[in-house]
């Protein structure tokens, strides 16, 4: 009888293979402690994979304690001495919902929404995944809290416009600024803070006699425009060009709405 050939071992998943390559770069000193590792977008481009798969690569390295996210910087290699900054060796961490949400926002800002998971968040915080569920029921609720926090970071600046158009433009630009700072936010639901801002913006039109249903449709048109433009932010387009396109489109939208409001109220 002939000797049966053993079946070849299955190839590792692409994200595990890429994680191994980055792990080897770190071990060899090619990427040293404190230096940035490739971002989700860079990994996707270099290896020709989807951003969701690229996010898994960094999740693996974070779970192993090799890297951690630094807001405003990116994902960096940790030190051999211990955990990421702000997490003292051996000291227990007291989790709060606020701290969990702020850390999740930082992770999403650096790696994108695709890389955010309860397991990755737990690894970043240095706690077991089940510890998170004492504070947040699940990822859906977490994303909603993140959106609330992102929109509540700061309010409108400067003197509030008196008319509905000035207010609506200010509200739209404020929302755009939030999306620019947090590109993942376009994929989250609209939080109450954003809805309240639009109510404030349309109050002058309501006082002038615009019917509540028309007020709601007008606010929804502007909110939908801003959010629709923001979806492109996650793809990393030219920011200046996108800002210019946003401003142009917003002005034209407001021009059209001004005609509608004038026809239904007798003035702006």
From TrEMBL:
Give UniProt keywords alphabetically.
Answer: DNA-binding, Transcription, Transcription regulation
Name the domain of life: Bacteria
Domain HTH gntR-type: start-end pairs: 12-80
Q: Name one Pfam family in it.
A: GntR
Which SMART domains did the record assign?
HTH_GNTR
**Residue spans binding DNA:** 117-136
Name of protein: GntR family transcriptional regulator
